[in-house]
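Example A, followed by Example B.
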Amino acid sequence: MSDTTQIQAGRDVATLINVFTVAPERQAQLVALLTRATEETMRHRPGFISANIHASADGERVVNYAQWESEEHFRAMLADPGAREHMTEAAALAESFDPRMFSVESVHHV
């Protein structure tokens, strides 16, 4: 399986989209934490494919778009103590967060 983000309808991957609401003065800190967590821990977990960290222009949101080989791989990562430590730190920086699993239903290009 490719280790880059490929967005395709019907692709057999589990897609996590986690939207964090954050105070604008903490956005850069949250982006740095999620980037470090991905490099140090998440990318080494079985089933990890990719993660993409997005920062909103208004400073109030950070979005993590991540792909896993399966939802089971994602759930196994949640039980990892190292991953949990990073997730606890991220939750402390954010005002709220809303992680959800998605499937890609439609993709459009020019």
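Example B, a separate protein, is given below in the same form.
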Amino acid sequence: MMNLFLVEDERWALEELKALFKRYEPQHLVHAFENGEDALAAAKSVVPHLVLTDITMPGMDGLELLNKIGRSHPEAKGIILSVHDDFAYAQRGMQTGVTDYLLKPVRKETLYRAVDRMLARIEEESRSRSDRAEWSLLQRLLSADALERGERAAAEPQRMFMALLLLGNFASPLTWKDAGLDASDILAHFGSGLNGESECHCVTIDCRRRVLLLPVDNEASALSIKTKLQILFNHMETRGILLHVSFGMKKESESLNRSFVRLGKQLEEHLRIGVPTWAAPDMKPTVPDIGEIWVKVRALQAQIKAGDMARGRDTVSRIVTWLQRKEVTQKQLTQFAIDLFYSLKFNLQSESKSRLHEDMSLLNEVINYEPITAWLTAAVFGMAGERESKEQKPKELVPVVINWIHANYQGDFSLQQFASEHHVSLGHLSRLFKSQTGYTFSDYVIGYRISKAKELLADGTSRPSEVGELVGYEDAKHFSHLFKRITGETPTAYAKRKMSE
């Protein structure tokens, strides 16, 4: 939204201009003045973006007005209205580089073309300035040594309200584009404009994080900003968009980077998966006691050792459900998963070669608990499957079989091959597999391959015609038939639907 100043000493001409400029409302604000003195006084409290002024007026003329406005608002543009005899005078004004001129009487089409051209120029220059300012602020937010280098952006006041906005999770698929909310929309919500416009910023850190930087003069303005932030937070929750907010005041002695890091840590202390987070500086995080969960973990260890897959899966599901009901923080959940894996590796004497930090990354991607159950189940039983199998009983080999499938699903293999290598009866192992997983060996392999195919198709990096071979099917028609039987649609249709979502 721009402020458009109309300055004309002849009242009838001013009324005509006001009527013509209704075309630019309500997108822009139109301010009308009968003399240059009133327009200059208004410019002390309202930032003029475009000034359309008569060149010949009693007292302060149009050129003097534009020159004086230009001293305090150098980005303002001007259009002067001139009669033919004043043309040389108008040309001198154009030499400043900030004015255009229109010859009276002005045709409506000519006026609109000139104003539209100038508004487009203002918008382009404003966008360029904003991009440069945002880049500078982004470097200062992310660089720990910016303050030591003595870099202080002109738009950074000493006292500032800062808010970190996170959509979904730190690595979730949800982005600001999905939310349909531009940085300019967020700034407009906080009423940026007038004299504070150039000092208000919404800096995009990545596709999920943004930082609000808003100058504050006193406690009342800080409270007003906090209230508007709460309204935005509630609005996003009403729309079903998961938003996490951490906010506070940038201390005068703090660099932007230190303030940003402080807000990030503040958010991490409160963040819960699938629940909107409001992390105020004076709030203490609620960390529930989860000590009793280890009773379930010990039961899980016993079930894994006994090769009881069905009960083990049920126990993992109950562990995740219990953690969700306890409303643990994401930080607490991550530490529990790390402790769980180490405990299982120790008690099962697993030689797992999985890299723990990569496993933990899923907790930064999810926005609800549903994928966590499947992830923990796969990780736990994958770990169990990596145990030495020489002294294991046949019923304890089922986790090993599952892990073997997951590692070899792209190739050609059979349960008979596994049974032969481990000196186990094929019929007995087949019955054990069905009783512990609920699937025959063949159905489990097909289901797993199709699940991997769905991942590849949704990712969009592989063509549908190539995916079958990537998951172990050399016959494309056979793969397409299996895929449609299980999912209800062909691989091509599935890929198109995922790309359009």
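On Example B: The radius of gyration is 33 Å.
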